[in-house]
Design brief:
- A hairpin with a 4-residue loop joins β5 and β6.
- Helices cover about 20% and strands about 40% of the residues.
- A ten-stranded antiparallel sheet has the order 1-2-3-8-10-9-5-6-4-7, covered by helices on one side.
- By secondary structure, it is of the alpha+beta class.
- It is globular and about 50 Å long.
């Protein structure tokens, strides 16, 4: 079933919002989404555990949206917070989506470890799950998605995946997390 969505996600007691337009094909245990080209603010943390990289990366990006940028401009927090996980690698790229009002000209970071990147339009296989996500849980869900895709003959890039977290750590119930594989 093909569905067009305009997704708006808001977390209680924070200003976590993002709107992304995508087409989706819904299967029993995964979705195939087509995302548009968009800018993200990112940082790469090297040589740390995934959990520590997420912590360090989050704070670097949080400082950017709190005004550590060339315009000293505060920017709304967005979700998801993504993390690029590569097989056998201890470098992790953590990213925030740049809000739509800043997509054309996002303020440049003043921290040399933070950068603006443009992610090209892409088709992504997505598996969603609830609860508090640990690096181990993300890896387990990514493995489950990879098995499903292989069993269904779906071609995808197996050497990396993204984690996507949508909730503040203060949200206790109805949490939403995802793992993403890029379609070949």
């Amino acid at each position: 079933m093909l569905i067009w969505k305009r997704q708006l996600l808001i977390s209680v007691n924070t200003q976590l919002t993002v709107t992304v337009t995508f087409a989706t094909f819904q299967a029993k245990d995964y979705e195939l989404r087509q995302y548009e080209t968009a800018k993200w603010v990112s940082t790469v943390i090297r040589g740390e555990s995934q959990k520590e990289a997420m912590r360090q990366g989050f704070w670097k990006l949080f400082h950017y949206i709190q005004g550590k940028n060339e315009k000293e401009m505060k920017i709304d927090m967005t979700v998801p917070v993504t993390c690029l996980v590569k097989s056998g690698c201890t470098d992790f790229k953590i990213s925030f989506f740049v809000p739509f009002e800043h997509q054309d000209c996002p303020p440049q970071p003043t921290d040399s470890d933070v950068f603006i990147e443009e992610r090209k339009a892409a088709a992504l296989f997505v598996r969603s799950f609830g609860g508090f996500a640990s690096p181990e849980k993300y890896a387990e869900e990514a493995d489950a998605l990879a098995r499903t895709l292989r069993n269904r003959g779906q071609p995808f890039h197996e050497d990396f995946f993204y984690t996507a977290g949508y909730d503040s750590p203060f949200k206790l119930f109805n949490r939403h997390n995802e793992v993403w594989y890029f379609k070949k």
